[in-house]
Protein: Peptidase T
Amino acid sequence: MSTVVDKFLKYVTIDTQSDEDSTTSPSTEKQKDLARLLVGELKEMGASDVRMDEEYGYVYATIPSTLKEEGKEVPVIGFIAHMDTSPAVSGKDVKPRIVENYDGKDIVLNQELNIILPVEENPELLEYEGKKLIVTDGTTLLGADDKAGVAEIMTMAQTLLAHPEKEHGTIRIAFTPDEEVGRGVDHFDVEGFQADYAYTVDGGALGELEYESFNAAGARLHVNGYSVHPGSAKNKMLNAILLAQEFQSLLPVFETPAATEGYEGFYHADRMTGTVESAQADYIIRDHSRELFEKKKAYFREAADFLNKKYGKEIFTVEMQDSYYNMKEKIYPENAHLIDTAVKAMEEAGVTPLIAPIRGGTDGSRLSFMGLPCPNLCTGGMNYHGRYEYVCIESMEKCVEIILNIISLYAEHGIEKKIK
Structure:
């Protein structure tokens, strides 16, 4: 049987980068290349109900229950990962390399281009001394976000299907496109998935367990300037580029991603284009508190209104749309067994649980509000969305063990208020 490493090394060579500017779904057809491969592998393993949504690219499968005790109530548990990689850095021609017995020193990713993964800037590397790491060649991202999660779920499926003597309830599997561009569950078939609860496998370092996410919105600022020859522009020109900068100056300077952590929210200027006559800026607005989130959105609009009043005309317009909400509202305390079970599963694997809020969102954020409570599990990956991304092999193997432990715990205990 292939290992989680074998699967991961195969999956990362398939370019599945999503495109935030695309209006299609999925945003890139190449994501379906991995989807088709996964469908073939699931069928070969012997999974049931394997299907691919040919239009949107989702993959679904079932591992049937092996429970012998009739009448035992065990919930149907789903495991979900996304197939796409971030648009931030190229995912084409990924060349992964295994660093055996990591020595705790800087890692030369590409000697020819002098691309180095330095310990000084990545002190957490020291935690992996003596272990095996998978790194890039420094010219692309690796794709551990979230192909590590895909590989771990596929390895779990392979293990259970190869050992029908292991008792477990019905397990659902899903792989989604376009998570990185915020559209991962736009067409997810929650009703057809038929899971009572689920976990996304899309976190970072080993032990991470997340059931709190940001509330999130996207905002687009349009600035209408007035262009005139700069030689005769006095008291006439309205430079849209400078006006956009003026708008940015009204936002709290310490409420940016670079100045916040933990539960602190932010405004993030993500992209800006423009000329003297017209400019456009894209923002994301985040906060764990729904109340503070709503206040941030209101303040953003008020800043535009203030400047329109200042200039006596409608120069600034705002488009805003909520993206997802804090999944804690749907998970804790009503469905706290999802967290209790995951904690116990990690402890049984010899892993220390690291429960912390996600400073972002996952497919589970939206799925939780679509009727499928869905916290997030670790994958073992680090430095996502960049050329310095890496994943620890031992961590990936432990993640598979954690998933299998969760399944065993539900088979043994069902749903308990607190798994002892």
User: Anything to note?
Assistant: The domain at 215-323 is CATH 3.30.70.360 (Alpha-Beta Plaits).
